[in-house]
Each structure stands twice: as structure tokens, then as C-alpha cells.
Amino acid sequence: MRNPMRMMAATTLISEALVMFFAGLVAKDLSSLSTGTALGITCGLAVVCFVTAGLLRSRAGYVLGSVLQLAIFAVGIWVHTMLFLGVLFGALWIASLVIGSRLEREGAQRWALHEAEQAKQERDGEFTEPA
């Protein structure tokens, strides 16, 4: 069974990485930063998003992802349109964690119910082997 929270969080981070790359192309024209600095910051954030998506197998990946959301929001100091992206992806990140953990709990409950049902069938002699 795949981990729903990890899948949702990784999807958010990968999408965010792509948006960060393209945001850099806009940021170089809309900010007071030099072209190299604007592209360096946004491309750096995009790379960190990709790396963080790979680190989601451990708790550290989720912590880094949360810190990354704050960093992207902070870039809005120099590029005001990044404030919107920071808020948008921050909300998506929180939704991924909340909804993903709820789906994990529900899946675990369904699995426990299934296991209990199979144990009852075995105990009562009604167990049938799947085809």
C-alpha cells in the first residue's frame, strides 16, 4: 500500500519546483534583484523542492518541506508576486499533510477491519482461498 501523505506531499513539492523555475523567469524582470540572483534563488528553491520530495521517506523530509514553504514565502520580500505563490503552495502543503494523514488513518482502519474479518472466518472455518 502506498503512503497517501507522502504521495500528496511529493506531488505538491514537484509542482512547486516547476512553478519556482518559471517564477524565476518572471522574477528577474519584476524585482530589484539582478537576473543572476533572481534565477539563482528560484532555481535553488526548485532544486531543493525536488530533493525534499525524495526525502519524504523520513520525518526530516516533512520538516524540510515545511521550512521550504516558509523560505518560498520569504522570497516575496523581493518579488511581491511570490507572496501569492508562497501562500498558495503553503496551503497546498498543509492540505497534503492533513488530508494525507487522514487517508492513512482510514486505510489502517480498513486494513485492521479486513484482518479481523479474515481471522473470524478462519476461526469459524469459513475461510476461502482467493482465486
From TrEMBL:
Transmembrane spans: 37-56, 61-79, 85-103
InterPro entries: DUF4233
Keywords: Membrane, Transmembrane, Transmembrane helix
Protein name (record): DUF4233 domain-containing protein
